């Protein structure tokens, strides 16, 4: 942005708008992982799209924790390392898009979403939020379309009364609902072998 | 000098957003309605992140090789491919389409 001739304050405003969604992630992860002491402050630094998605995609609390820290630390280290490599090597590397790296990101986020689409309602929510995002892109600054989708999803969650075992389980305690409904995790394991994450909640 | 100042402000604010989220007491999310919203919001955010990465180019929409990546990933997922295979299918398809001249 600055390279394109923008002012410092404009770049700062755009970055802050872009980072707003991390506050929502922080709120979810705090309830999910219950970090204490210094972990709260280090965890906050590592709270990004990828670590949140990796963590909330898991059903098992230990895996949720592992997913968050592995993705968070892994990306923090590699992101900075390769930014430095890019800055030093410069144009010698060519366009990263040539390697399809942006396509990898698309695929990764779809793969994290996929296991949750187990019924009509989650599919409908995903479609509505995807459409809302695409409509919002041309009208608001980058980063804000994601917030628009978050608000749409929150409104749907506030007013809906559907079943809670269709990928919409609470992420605070992913096991509670299943114990009540089928008294065990038989169904969970069956699904797990097919790469789905039943009971993953959010 | 002024640029460095705004850069540092941006860094501080970026961290502040995240920390504010962590400072919201967990019990605030511990009722059925908030749990449900956490569920719908995760689906909404993942759907949104998928679309932003697939079609957004700054503040405009673009139909480029990333759409091919999205389709390839969907096919791989429908075939129950493991996560890593899905990601590789997305990257490979985007790279291949660009090689063929579709940006």
From TrEMBL, chain B:
<feature type="transmembrane region" description="Helical">
    <location>
        <begin position="68"/>
        <end position="97"/>
    </location>
</feature>
<keyword id="KW-0812">Transmembrane</keyword>
<dbReference type="InterPro" id="IPR008407">
    <property type="entry name" value="Brnchd-chn_aa_trnsp_AzlD"/>
</dbReference>
<keyword id="KW-0472">Membrane</keyword>
<dbReference type="Pfam" id="PF05437">
    <property type="entry name" value="AzlD"/>
</dbReference>
<protein>
    <submittedName>
        <fullName>AzlD domain-containing protein</fullName>
    </submittedName>
</protein>
<feature type="transmembrane region" description="Helical">
    <location>
        <begin position="37"/>
        <end position="56"/>
    </location>
</feature>
<keyword id="KW-1133">Transmembrane helix</keyword>
């Amino acid at each position: 942005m600055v390279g394109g001739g923008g002012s410092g304050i404009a770049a700062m405003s755009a970055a802050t708008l872009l980072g707003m969604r991390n506050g929502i992630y922080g709120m979810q992860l705090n309830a999910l992982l219950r970090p204490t002491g210094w972990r709260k402050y280090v965890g906050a630094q590592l709270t990004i799209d990828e670590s949140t998605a990796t963590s909330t995609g898991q059903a098992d609390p230990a895996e949720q924790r592992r997913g968050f820290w592995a993705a968070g630390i892994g990306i923090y280290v590699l992101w900075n390392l390769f930014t430095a490599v890019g800055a030093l090597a410069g144009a010698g590397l060519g366009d990263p898009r040539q390697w399809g790296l942006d396509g990898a990101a698309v695929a990764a986020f779809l793969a994290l979403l996929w296991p949750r689409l187990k019924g009509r309602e989650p599919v409908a929510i995903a479609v509505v939020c995807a459409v809302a995002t695409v409509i919002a892109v041309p009208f608001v600054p980058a980063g804000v379309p994601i917030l628009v989708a978050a608000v749409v999803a929150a409104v749907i969650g506030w007013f809906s009364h559907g079943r809670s075992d269709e990928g919409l389980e609470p992420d605070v305690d992913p096991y509670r609902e299943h114990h009540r409904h089928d008294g065990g995790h038989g169904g969970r394991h069956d699904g797990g072998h097919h790469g789905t994450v039943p009971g993953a909640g959010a | 000098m002024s640029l460095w100042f705004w850069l540092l402000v941006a860094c501080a604010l970026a961290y502040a957003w995240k920390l504010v989220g962590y400072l919201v007491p967990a019990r605030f999310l511990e009722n059925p309605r908030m749990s449900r919203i956490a569920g719908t919001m995760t689906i909404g955010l993942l759907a949104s992140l998928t679309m932003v990465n697939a079609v957004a180019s700054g503040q405009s929409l673009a139909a480029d090789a990333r759409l091919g990546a999205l389709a390839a990933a969907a096919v791989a997922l429908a075939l129950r491919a493991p996560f890593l295979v899905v990601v590789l299918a997305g990257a490979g398809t985007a790279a291949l389409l660009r090689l063929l001249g579709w940006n």
